[in-house]
Amino acid sequence: MRVAVLDTQVALGMKVEFYDPLGATFGLPTYPFKWAPTHLATRRQLRSRNLRPGGQDIAAQILWRHRGKRRVAYLYDIQHAKAKRTATPAQLAAVGKALLARRFCTSCQQLKPYYIPRRYGECLDCIPGGAA
Ligand SMILES: [Zn+2]
C-alpha cells in the first residue's frame, strides 16, 4: 500500500530511506518508522487488542536506524489476525509447576528463592567451591 505523503516526497526528489511499498528493494513491503498503513500492526500492537497473527505470513516491515544499526519490526494484517487464546486452568497449573521446578535444587532437595542456574544444575550453596 502506498503512502501519499511519501510518494509526493519521492516525486519531489527527496530521499526517503526505507520506503519501498512494493518490496522491490527489501523483499517485503517496507515503510519508514511511523509511516506504516493503519491496517498493519506489529505483534505487540495486535496483542494490545487481544489479537494474534494466527499463522498468517508477515505482510510488511518497518525499517529504521537506531544507534547506527538497522532495526526491523514485522507487520501483520489486522484483518487476518485471530483472537488471542486464553490459557486453560490446566495450562496455568502446568506453568506454575514448571516455574517451581526451576527453583528446586536436586542436590540438596531444597526450594530456593531464585532459579537454579542452568550452568551449574544446582543451587549456589551446592556448587563446588561455593558461589562465584
Ligand atoms: Zn542445593
From TrEMBL:
Q: Which NCBIfam families match?
A: QRL_CxxC_CxxC
For this entry, the protein name equals RRQRL motif-containing zinc-binding protein
